[in-house]
């Protein structure tokens, strides 16, 4: 059974901080692909990046400051040099 657990619900940060959104997952797939999405006030879910095995892809606008590191149980999202416009809901899908 596939399962995602984003245990931190709300996170606050100061501009310029590095923020990590912890997220664990469980899946029956040996080599799952995990997708991070960003949702802003307009409600649109924007694909940010995905991770699989030892690889992954990032959309251009997220390449510089958004990174995710994947292991067998977790795929935390790190946002560097955070700014006001990063205020959003972040979703992990697997
Ligand atoms: C996977 O990463 C998480 C968060 O970085 C860490 O807590 C966990 O111990 C790691 N698990 C494995 C199997 O390496």
TrEMBL record:
Lineage: Eukaryota, Metazoa, Chordata, Craniata, Vertebrata
A biological-process GO annotation: adaptive immune response
GO cellular component terms listed in the entry, alphabetical order: T cell receptor complex
Record key words, sorted: Adaptive immunity, Immunity, Immunoglobulin domain, Receptor, Signal, T cell receptor
Record has Signal as a keyword: yes
Ig-like domain location: 15-94
Superkingdom of origin organism: Eukaryota
Record-linked InterPro entries: Ig-like_dom (IPR007110), Ig-like_dom_sf (IPR036179), Ig-like_fold (IPR013783), Ig_V-set (IPR013106), TCR_variable_region (IPR051287)
Species annotation: Sinocyclocheilus rhinocerous
Listed name of the protein: Ig-like domain-containing protein
Record keyword Signal present: yes
